Amino acid sequence: MDKEQSIISNFANNLNGDDGAIIGDMVYSKDMFVEGIHFKSHWLSPKQIGKKAMIVNLSDAIAMNATPKYALLGLGLPKNLSNKYIKELSSGLKECAAQYGTQIIGGDTILSNKLIISLTIISYLNSKKPLIRNGAKIGDIVCYTGVLGGSIKGLRTLLNGGKISSNSRFVTPNLRQEFIKQSAKWIRSGMDISDGLASDLPKITQDRAVKFNKKLSKFEFISGEEYEMLIVVPPKNIKRVLNQAKKCRVKLNLLGKIINERAKFHGKFTHF
């Protein structure tokens, strides 16, 4: 058990265990975005930092088949940040929130030795069928959306002193909101790919093995912060989900079938 999971286990109860807590028809989720852990300040503009901090938080709600409505914002701000920087950072946060119909309704600020962005997202379930991590069964089909590997390629370029496009997956992830909203009724379980497929796959299969029918590169397998969807679909529903993906113009990859064996995964995603 890694340190993060050890901490989480200390607060385990029947309301947590997913990316958000479901209470009635509401979902509450929280993530932090910290300089030196998730990004370096010279890699991204203040506006890009604000946008990414918001979008990685909204991803948790959307992955659970919920519509994010409100956000509470906590900021730790270094003393040397200019008013212009803070204004651009705020603009990125607000612009991304507005794109997904979310309003920042309050929060708090403190002085800090590095930039810290903490967001609490309050969302409404789209239906009585939330998507949670548990529920996968032997014989179910594991799928993921989009193309994986772009985030780690962008990260490695930055770590080597290079520059990346503003459209890079590391800067601007794509969230599959409409696809999940329309497909959730046919999906057994789901989550976003934030820690990399190698790390997230055992979570959604409940440590069962997957018989792959698709060969993946190392980058595709370990790349974190992709925020594509990882879903488990009963075989009888796979055609419906594929058709919905086509309607939403989302590439859906059939990774493999869950089998009655213990998973053996090696490797995990860690922030630099």
UniProtKB/TrEMBL annotation:
Reactions that this protein is recorded to catalyse: thiamine phosphate + ATP = thiamine diphosphate + ADP
Name the record gives this protein: Thiamine-monophosphate kinase
Role of this protein: Catalyzes the ATP-dependent phosphorylation of thiamine-monophosphate (TMP) to form thiamine-pyrophosphate (TPP), the active form of vitamin B1.
Keyword Zinc-finger: no
Keyword tags: ATP-binding, Kinase, Magnesium, Metal-binding, Nucleotide-binding, Thiamine biosynthesis, Transferase
EC number(s) stated in the UniProt entry for this protein: 2.7.4.16
Other facts: Reaction mechanism of ThiL seems to utilize a direct, inline transfer of the gamma-phosphate of ATP to TMP rather than a phosphorylated enzyme intermediate.
Pfam families hit by this protein: AIRS
GO molecular-function terms, A-Z: ATP binding; magnesium ion binding; thiamine-phosphate kinase activity
NCBIfam families: PRK05731.2-3
Binding-site residues for Mg(2+) 3, renumbered to this chain: 19, 60, 192
Residues holding Mg(2+) 4: 19, 29, 60
Any one of the GO BP annotations: thiamine biosynthetic process
Biological or metabolic pathway of the protein: Cofactor biosynthesis; thiamine diphosphate biosynthesis; thiamine diphosphate from thiamine phosphate: step 1/1
Binding site residues for ATP: 107-108, 133, 194
Domain PurM-like N-terminal per the UniProt entry, residue ranges: 17-122
